[in-house]
Amino acid sequence: MKKQPKFVIMALTFTALAIIIGTGCGKRDTAAISIAGSTTMEPLTSTLVRVYGETTGKHVTISANGSHTGISALIDGRCDIAESSTKITGAELKSAGEKGITIKEFVIAKGMIVPIVHRMNPVRDISLERLRLIYTGNIRDWSGLGGQGVVDAVGRDGFSGTYDVWKRIVLRGGEPAREVKGMPSTTMVLAHVARHENSIGYVEYAYLNPDVRA
């Protein structure tokens, strides 16, 4: 069977955004190009897709449902391009290899995750160490940080590359507290923090809006 190229667009927060290219079997039998993966990269991808469509006339679909979901779809032949905001894991590389797919990564840009709070939250400065204590459940009330009320911490779910980076850098590889709500998209994190004055979350810098404060 003829080998076909596969691509993973990859965003590494605090490091480089990259493209992962995989070659192997499993070409999708469709004229449209399908992209799946990171919600963090969706604004960038949407712009690229619009320009590409205007230039070539080709139809491209985007399904932003999490970095690891996109990589899994790529390996299984359910999409043509996967976008990710974290490095591909050893288990994913092994799965690709078992299916005859070779993965390569190429840097394309840089990204940044920022913690966010409700726009009315009086707290103006939270150190990296205090962020870790909040997300591991060791700080549960805003009173010790200059605010008031019980901390309502939210983040991304385990399918998210943003979650991977936050876990590695902020939690030092540890697990978040059970009370931390994991959400399937960046927009859901934004909406939750915008509605709840005691909440805190984290998003890609490009998603910031007037309803929250970084």
Describe the structure.
It is a single chain. By secondary structure, the protein is of the alpha/beta class. The chain has 2 domains: 4-110, Periplasmic binding protein-like II (D-Maltodextrin-Binding Protein, domain 2); 113-213, Periplasmic binding protein-like II (D-Maltodextrin-Binding Protein, domain 2, 3-Layer(aba) Sandwich). It contains 6 helices and 11 strands. The chain has helices spanning 42-56, 67-75, 90-98, 128-135, 161-169, 186-195, and strands spanning 4-11, 16-24, 33-37, 60-64, 81-84, 102-110, 113-118, 152-156, 181-183, 199-204, 212-213. Strands 4-3-5-1-2-6 form a 6-stranded mixed beta sheet, sandwiched between helices. Strands 9-8-10-7-11 form a 5-stranded mixed beta sheet, sandwiched between helices. The longest helix is centred in the N-terminal third of the chain and has 15 residues, at 42-56. The N and C termini lie far apart (51 Å).
Q: Give me the count of strands.
A: 11
Q: Report the β-strand fraction as a percent range.
A: 25-35%
**What portion of residues is helical?**
25-40%
- Our count of helices gives 6
The poorly predicted ranges are: 1-16
Task: Report the mean per-residue pLDDT as an integer.
Answer: 84
Task: Please report the first level of CATH classification, the CATH class of the largest domain.
Answer: Alpha Beta
Structural class: alpha/beta
Biggest sheet architecture: 6 strands, mixed
CATH-defined topology of the largest domain: D-Maltodextrin-Binding Protein, domain 2
Q: Would you identify the CATH architecture of the largest domain?
A: 3-Layer(aba) Sandwich
Query: Please, what is the CATH homologous superfamily of the largest domain?
Result: Periplasmic binding protein-like II
Physical arrangement of strands within the biggest beta sheet: 4-3-5-1-2-6
What is the global morphology?
globular
**Rg, nearest Å:** 19 Å
Distance between the termini: 51 Å
Order of helical and strand elements:
EEEHEHEHEEHEHEHEE
The tally of domains stands at 2
